[in-house]
Structures are given as structure tokens and as C-alpha cells.
Amino acid sequence: MNATVAPGITAAQIAEGQQLPALRHPVTATTIVLGALASRDWRPMHHDKDFAVERNGVKNIFINTPNNAAWFERYVTDWTGPRGRLGRLRFEMKKSVFPGDEMCFSGVVRKLSTDATGCHWVDLDLAISVDGEMRTTGFACVAVPADPSDNPWARKGDRWTP
Amino acid sequence: MSAAPELPPAVQAMIGTPMYEERTEFPIEIGYVYNTCAAVQNANPIFWDEAAAREITGGPIAPPTMLSVWFRPHHWAPGAAGERTALQVHFDLKRLLDLPEAVVASNEAVFGEPVRPGDRLTTRQIVRSVGPLKRTKLGTGRFWTIDVETTNQHGEWVGTEIYTLLGYRRPDQ
């Protein structure tokens, strides 16, 4: 074990039904444009309000798909700590997130399992809501350490089967 | 893998066929990692602290969810005509099916070997299915599913993205 990085959560500390701490983040046009450009998504509905309104028929620019993924990744690894390793992420953007919205992230542990290679997996149901209205629902499968000496990032090839 | 029977032959031929194998236009770059982490205020030390990255991930890596970032083309490049688009098979389907608008309906990714600064990645786009014409809230259109498989310069699998998209025509179009 090392001294430089906090160990984060281990499988023994997680139970099915456990809720992740909520995360709230107010969204501005800058939030959306930063996310779009960081993900090299130059499509105009993520930076040009006139285009979003006239072509997409929505009220404003909105968060793009890869940035939504980056937000979920941050939310999950805020909870697991740096040794948490994302294996799978799926989500549906049912309604867009616009400037002026406050995103509220929530998550719950659906299942804990250990695969044939000994990797500990946590299945998470995820959501982003705004004022209680569901905007994005998601599902993540994240590997967590069995104990403080374990590190899912050390797995390669046949020992990593997300 | 499936196809509605009335699909044009050019669309039927795309289903299940790996297309547009391409390499990233630039080596994986730490600057985009910082931009992405800053955009979502992700403080994970493996992306900010070299010692933490060395200890946990064997050196710096990119956030796994950045998988699609690396093969989006530059918005402009010398000699390129018109706007350049990522996920070209999606735009091919829009054109071939005459559906001018589109939205992402769902998005799934599976992550393999970490992507590291300096890596050169290769992607292949595979249309898995194209559904029947449907009336939706946005207009009449079709759902389709596209896999994007990505490997690194060592031939290691680094991930697969599975996109379900709705191509549609607005009622007034």
C-alpha cells in the first residue's frame, strides 16, 4: 500500500441498494460549450442558440452526449475514488439539459458481483434530474478494489472483462 | 443484426460490414484530458497528479469516457471540402434514407485497455441494425445502431461504443 493517494472505497464497504451522495451542478452556456469543445464536438446545437432553436426546435443549446458521459464518469469516480475503473457506461438523454438548469446527479447500487477473474464489479443505476424532472437515466458497471491492496487498473487482457 | 425489408440495397449492404477504418488524426494529447476534466470539474488525481497516475494506472491516462473524442475530425483542415463529420456511417444513413435530422437516442460504451498520451488509435464503424419507419414526437424516422470499435497501436482493444440514433424528418419537412 502506498501513502500518496487515498485508497477510496472497497467492495466490502458497498451494499446493494446503497445510494451515492447526490451531486448538484448549475449549468450555464459556458458549461455546455466547454464540454462540447473539450469533446471535439463542433456541431452547432451545442454552441449556437439560433441553430438549436431553429433546426432542433428546442429552447437553447444543450449538453452533448460525450460530455454527459464525462459528467457520469466524474460522478461515479468521485464516489469510488481513483482506483475505481469504469467498465461500461450506458445512458439515455430523455430530455436535454439547458443553460439555467441545475443538474442533480443520483445513483444507487443495483448489484455487486465478482467475475471469474476475481474482479469486483458494482452495477449502478444513475440519473440526472432537473427540479425533480428526469433528464438522463444511466447505468454504469465499475470495478472496485477488493481491499486496499487491490487495484482494478492493474488488470489486462483476459483479466479485464467488462 | 437486423434490417427492415424495404431498406435500399445500399443500406442493407452496410449492415454488419466494418467501414471507415481510420486512425486518429493526432497522437492522444494530455491537453484534451485537462479540458475534459475541467469541463466537468473532475478532480480524480490520476488525471492531474503524475505520481498518482504512476502509482495507480502505470502513468498518465485519458478518462475512459473520452473514447469518442479522439476520432472526431478537426472542424476544418487544409484541402478539406465542407464540414467534416464524425461517425460517417450515421451521416451516410441519413443521406441514403433521406432523413435530414437526427438525435442520439442512447449511447453505451465498454472500456478496455486505458488510452494513454501518445497513443495512436484505430476505429472501425459497423452498422448493427436499421429499424422500420416509425412516428415519433420529433417526426417520422428510423432508429439505427452503430458500433465503433477502437484498438491502440499495439493491437489492444481499448473500447467499443454502441450508438442508437434516431434519423427523422420533421412534420413540416
UniProtKB/TrEMBL annotation, chain A:
It comes from the Bacteria. Gene3D superfamilies: Hotdog Thioesterase. InterPro entries: HotDog_dom_sf. SUPFAM superfamilies: Thioesterase/thiol ester dehydrase-isomerase (SSF54637). This is MaoC-like domain-containing protein. The lineage of its organism: Bacteria, Pseudomonadati, Pseudomonadota, Betaproteobacteria, Rhodocyclales.
Automatic annotation (TrEMBL), chain B:
Pfam families: FAS1_DH_region. CDD domains: R_hydratase_like (cd03441). It comes from the Bacteria. Gene3D superfamilies: Hotdog Thioesterase (3.10.129.10). InterPro entries: FAS1-like_DH_region, HotDog_dom_sf. Coiled coil: none annotated. Residues 14-159 form the FAS1-like dehydratase domain. This is FAS1-like dehydratase domain-containing protein. It comes from Aromatoleum diolicum. The lineage of its organism: Bacteria, Pseudomonadati, Pseudomonadota, Betaproteobacteria, Rhodocyclales.
